[in-house]
Amino acid sequence: MKTVYLDYHSAKPTDPRVVEAMLPYFTEHFGNPSSLHHVGDVATEALEESRRAIARFINADPDEIVFTSGATESNNMALIGYAMRNKRKGNHIIISEVEHISIINIAKYLMAQGFEVSRVPVDQYGRVRISKLERRIRDDTILISIGYANNEIGTIQPVEEIGKLAAEHGIAFHTDAVAAEGLVDIDVRRDGINLMSLSSNDVYGPKGLGVLYMQKRYRVNPIIIGGGQERGLRSGSENVAAIVGMRAAVEIMQEEMPSEVQRLRSYRDRLIREVLETVPDSHLNGHPTERLASNAHFRFDGIEGESLLLSFKDAGIAVSTGSACTSKTLEPSHTLIATGLIHEEAHGSLQLTTGRFTEDEDIDRVLEVLPGIVARLRELSPLYQVRTR
Ligand code: PMP
Questions:
Q1: CATH code matching the domain that covers 4-11+257-388, chosen among 3.30.70.60, 1.20.120.50, 1.25.40.10, 3.90.1150.10
Q2: Is the CB of 320 under 6 A from ligand 1?
Q3: What is the pTM assigned to this prediction?
Q4: Measured from the CA of 201, which atom of ligand 1 is nearest?
Q5: For the residues 193-197, what does the mean pLDDT come to?
Q6: Which of 53, 141, 194, 381 has a CA 20 to 30 Å removed from the CA of 205?
Q7: 318 with 312: CB under 8 angstroms?
Q8: Are 125 and 288 in contact (CB under 8 A)?
Q9: pLDDT at 302
Q10: Residue from 157, 204, 325, 353 whose mutation best tests the ligand 1 pocket (most atoms within 8 A of CB)
């Protein structure tokens, strides 16, 4: 049986065209960009060409791009690096209730270092309300960090409005754009973004590479100290092959994004329409329209997400109940709780995320097995029996 993979928010395959572009940089062009000889020059050229391509992708300047080991590092560098550099200006930071676990844990770390962190709540769809955000701004607020889109329920934040508000108050605006990249047209100038985290894998590049976009006036202190690569901002020999891979990935993405997003949107809309129609007591999580084209997120009354996931696994279908980054905790998703769901509701959730290699047959298969799985699990669910009797 062919494996059906509908968990693209957790991990994406590297596009074979990207792998092809990377290969020579493991062998023939193995040089270190810091070397002054011609072998090093080839690596330097590749590095700078990638920087230019990634800058074009988000409408930034090449010297605003810093390569990191992934979005987690970019988030650390943005929040810790900016907070440390600007602590004399103020010690208050604002994040939202639906941030990725890396942002939440970095915020906790900063609190332990003496910073104050406010969390702005979201509405029932997981969207930040600008008026509520504005109310949390103080004279000593130095940074607002709100993800471009939610990696679980797919809700897209009003990023331009957040950027405008931050600029009006002279506060830096950081966004973790990992969930949105390749699915939403990101323009850091239009959106008023000062700092932004990206990952290579989310545009079908290799894992283990990320980017921090850093607008010229919004510098951060380095958090990794060493040989002074990346203009002293991020030491360590550059991962040239992966960096070349990310260049290929964004160039392919720029070309193919319009048609890809349209195709994913039609899968999403079909999933949402047919699941809500064919499965009784099913609900959509997240925003009905302001949501990522790749994301369909449901909850089913009286059902445990985990048992749903295992039934899908038996059927050869890879799905998820939420963020892979928090799957090892037994706690319900903080994102779903922030949208006002109670624990039982949050536990009954199913996240289906599509991507570049999803086919019509994958969607057919999910729609074929889901109603039966839900019905079977409900037969075993005392909770659901009591409710419906
Ligand atoms: N932010 C978001 C929104 C994510 O979904 C992830 C994980 N894919 C990360 C940050 C962390 O990225 P990485 O694993 O590349 O460090």
A1: 3.90.1150.10
A2: no
A3: 0.96
A4: 15
A5: 98
A6: 194
A7: yes
A8: yes
A9: 92
A10: 325
Residues contacting 131, CB < 8 A, separation 6+: none
How many whole angstroms separate alpha carbon 347 and alpha carbon 325? 16
Closest C-alpha to ligand 1, atom 10: 71
Q: Is 93 in the pocket of ligand 1 (CB under 6 A)?
A: no
| 220-243 tens-digit pLDDT | 999 999 999 999 999 999 999 999
Q: Is 4-11+257-388's fold the same as 16-252's?
A: no
297 lines ligand 1 (CB under 6 A): no
Ligand 1 atom at minimal distance to the Cα of residue 147: 3
Contact yes or no for 335/99 (Cβ under 8 A)? no
Which residue's C-alpha comes closest to atom 9 of ligand 1?
Answer: 71
pLDDT given at position 387: 62
* Under 8 Å between Cβ of 8 and 358: yes
Q: In 200-243, where do the E strands start and end?
A: 210-214
Rounded mean pLDDT, 186-191: 98
Per residue in 348-384, pLDDT (tens digit) is: 899 999 999 999 999 999 999 999 999 999 998 877 8
CB of 206 within 6 A of ligand 1: the answer is: no
To the nearest whole percent, how much of the chain has pLDDT over 90?
A: 89
DSSP 27-77: TTT---TT--SHHHHHHHHHHHHHHHHHHHHHT--GGGEEEESSHHHHHHH
Q: What percent of the chain has pLDDT over 70?
A: 96
Atom of ligand 1 nearest to the CA of 150: 3
| Statement: 16-252 belongs to CATH 3.40.640.10 | yes
Cβ atoms within 10 Å of 95's Cβ, excluding its own: 24
Q: Where are the domains of the chain?
A: 4-11+257-388, 16-252
Question: Among the residues of the chain, which ranges form H helices?
Answer: 16-22, 38-58, 71-85, 101-112, 130-136, 159-168, 188-191, 240-278, 305-314, 334-338, 343-347, 360-379, 382-388
- Strands lying side by side in the sheet with 295-300: 282-284, 295-300, 349-353
Pocket probe for ligand 1: among 8, 10, 67, 72, the residue whose CB has the most ligand atoms within 8 Å is: 72
In the chain, how long is the greatest CA-to-CA distance?
Answer: 78
